[in-house]
């Protein structure tokens, strides 16, 4: 007789989301797991998967860590790899381990078996009968598949082993092949095609846009944090939210509402640099940029002062950091793994749930207050009383837009729009600024020339300590914009975006994209294509964006310089991002020189929606002023 038995029967679906909305059934698959534990410490697993295909029944036996064995004395086991594995699982499941211990081995084995089963049913790469040119017409051509080293697993191991340098690994598969795309085969998933040629990007993001909506996988990964926000949604929801945000980031709003807020916080930022220069202590420039952009966007978006630059601790800010880190980490593990953790509410998924709850409480509180203020203004107007000026933050403007379009105000949708704008807008700008400080420290010629151009066009930067240039003044410093564009070419804040092909598609050059193929648009790789940017594509050279005769910024196609995506989904906040970067660089670089710490390792990027840094960027600040002539002379020798 078995000492203990466990039977689990469950549909493979998502549980209720904490960003709002009902459970989402992924497919019709139902798994039945029967796990029996015997007195000898072994367990038997029977897994039955019911699908539209014939039933699969698999049985296996394995050693269990089940602890409720007979009470007779047992010798203490010697340390082993098995006990180390048990400890790892205990750490993984935390305080739920004692409840789950009998069934964990069964769940893990079941997940492995299901993955292999799904993989074994994967279709062969699509074939085309004729790929030759006929009657002068380009016929469809297959995209090469990356060779698989392990049967059944496809390219999963290559993808996993290169996860820390993912964007460079993708570039390694494309750049030597003249920019031609390639396809990966992954167990249990649709094939994924990576492309980087501007003409292919043009087809996906512009010409055949309707064939390539946002990937369902990306939606699933980010839904808990972003809800049905503009970054990951499609259809009418996306169109409605985009209309709101386009109005929000108008030129007038940028000039009248957003510029003064950015200027206000750059003054605080400059004082931090002054203190760092005086103390000669190193500081984390990358982390500082994230504090600056969150302070700016919190006031622009929510009308609240977080005072992160003043050193105030904000649980909301910490929750944003932690939630983004955990959601991004989902890409490094099988979907089944993080979904099981979420279902059980253990480990990192438990932390994510708590962080998102804190974010929701903060944002929904702001939304509720904004709705209440609007109602008070309406009542005051009806009573003939003095009406307070309308709020200018993003939440209030979203509410205005909904009302003007006779749209029912949905607080959850307001939350989703605001959260997506905050997370996408804040991180892209902060990441770009952090990388720019690093790149300039490695390119003193560019740094010196940029400083010279800033002081030439904006001389008050050298004479007035409180001066902060505005939009019009900054637009005249062409080398500043060229430097930012060159940074975003090589290190785009959004290095990779995903879409999904919903119908067989053929590009003008014959490239065939089969239906149900996931698409990875590798902007990071596009910036490294020599046939697009020249043999010096890997050099940091802002001059490539300037007209040699006029010195003005050259207009480049958004599918060639694609730091802000392209087509109908081009970033609506790109002008605000440029404004923030210009204000920071103009005010900091004109007055300070940043030197990396001697033991500072070359920064490496994170895996996520934006190109973050894995470690702090520790730098020392040196003032560029008459009292520090050695630094000034060192800089001028490069001009």
From TrEMBL:
GO molecular function: heme binding; iron ion binding; monooxygenase activity; oxidoreductase activity, acting on paired donors, with incorporation or reduction of molecular oxygen
Keywords: Heme, Iron, Metal-binding, Monooxygenase, Oxidoreductase
CDD domains membership: CYP86A
Presence of the UniProt keyword Transferase in the record: no
Annotated segments matching region Disordered: 1-23, 62-83
Pfam families, alphabetized: p450 (PF00067)
InterPro entries: Cyt_P450, Cyt_P450_CS
Similarity section: Belongs to the cytochrome P450 family.
Name the UniProt record assigns to this protein: Cytochrome P450
Organism of derivation: Phytophthora pseudosyringae
